[in-house]
Amino acid sequence: SGDAKPRLTELPTEPVISMDLSGYITGWNPGAQLMFGYRAEEAVGRHILFLYAGDSDDHDNEIHELFLEDR
């Protein structure tokens, strides 16, 4: 039918970030660019933690722990 819905990553105002199991960004849509200020070319391939690098709030430390790998 002609009522094809846009894919989630194509919606311009909803931020969508996809990443691999190691936390590296593999997808970045226009909504993510609006939210974080980085173009896809700047974000894809980087680790998700680069988005939180400048934050020192204790709550953000909880976010960091979600992405850190056990070694």
Could you characterize the architecture of this molecule?
By secondary structure, the protein is an alpha+beta fold. It has helices at residues 30-36, 40-43, 58-67, and strands at 17-19, 25-28. The protein has a two-stranded antiparallel sheet with strand order 1-2. The mean pLDDT is 78.
Percent of residues in helices comes to 25-40%
Strand fraction band?
Answer: 5-15%
* Number of separate strands: 2
Major sheet details: 2 strands, antiparallel
Q: Name the structural class.
A: alpha+beta
- Taking all Cα atoms into account, the compactness measure Rg is 14 Å
Mean pLDDT: 78
For the terminal residues, how far apart are their CA atoms?
Answer: 50 Å
Lateral arrangement of strands in the main beta sheet = 1-2
Offer a quick outline of the entry.
Helix content is 30%, strand content 10%.
Give keywords.
globular; alpha+beta; single chain; 71 residues
Topology diagram in text:
Blueprint: E1 17-19, E2 25-28, H1 30-36, H2 40-43, H3 58-67
Antiparallel strand pairs: 1-2
